[in-house]
Amino acid sequence: MTTGIWKEPVAGRIRLRELNLEGDRQADLRVHGGEAKAVYCYPIEHYDYWRAQLPDQELTIGNFGENFTIDGFREDSVYVGDRFAIGSADVVVTQPRLPCYKLGVRFDSDDMVKRFLDSRRTGFYLAVSREGDVGAGDEIKEISRDPQGVSVADITRLYIEKRYSAADIELLQRALTVEALPNGWKDYFRERSQTARA
User: Fold this and answer.
1) In a domain, 5, yes or no
2) Which residue in 44, 91, 103, 190 has its CB near the most CB atoms, within 10 A?
3) Residue 33: which domain range?
4) How confident is the model at residue 126 (pLDDT cuts 50, 70, 90)?
5) What is the 3-state secondary structure (H, E, C) of the chain?
6) Are 104 and 110 in contact (CB under 8 A)?
7) Residue 69 domain-assigned?
8) Which CATH number characterizes residue 61's domain?
9) Domain count, the chain
10) 121 pLDDT exceeds 70?
């Protein structure tokens, strides 16, 4: 099996390009990578949760395959479409991570994919709107907030929910107007809005 999920810390500054970080690649481009998934961010705060859930695992930074282990930016406080500057690069939040079977391989656990999604601790992907150089310790500076106010956590919840309330439908309609949300997600939500009403 070929995978890019094993990550190692990098010293110094590296180039953040339109499709990935210099020196990093994705193995299966049908479901990983691309402009909308150039960079994967995972909040460091979630590591305490997973240490309690996975006491036999020795967790170190990068274990979830993230490019950036971030502090202070959780899924419920980051909107899809938010724009940030990191180093000399500019990025935009596009979507939560939906895990694939390789996460289970990484943790040697058949149920890890389900546990990860059920935890709703998904992290999120960034698209690169301006290439630049980044390095460990760079501050993530807000450029703008998306006016629709649809959080990464909202997208994950709408994905998982079996039935939608009227408020969910309204939120879903707002999500469909977020330019940064990839078309695959929009197609999925259009279909769900027809079949998952409460």
Assistant:
1) no
2) 91
3) 13-146
4) very high
5) CCCCCCCCCCCCEEEECCCCECCCCCCCCCCCCCHHHCEEEEECCHHHHHHHHCCCCCCCCCCCCCCEEECCCCCCCCECCCEEEECCEEEEEEEECCCCHHHHHHCCCCCHHHHHHHHCCCCEEEEEEECEEEECCCCEEEEECCCCCCEHHHHHHHHHCCCECHHHHHHHHHHCCCCCCCHHHHHHHHHHHHHCEC
6) yes
7) yes
8) 2.40.33.20
9) 1
10) yes
Amino acid at 93: V
* Distance from the first to the final alpha carbon of the chain: 42
Residue 32 has pLDDT above 80, yes or no: no
In a domain, 151, yes or no: no
pTM, two decimal places = 0.91
Q: Which two tokens stand for residue 130?
A: 């301006």
Q: Is residue 194 part of a domain?
A: no
Average pLDDT for residues 175-189, to the nearest whole number?
A: 97
137 has which bridge partners?
Answer: none
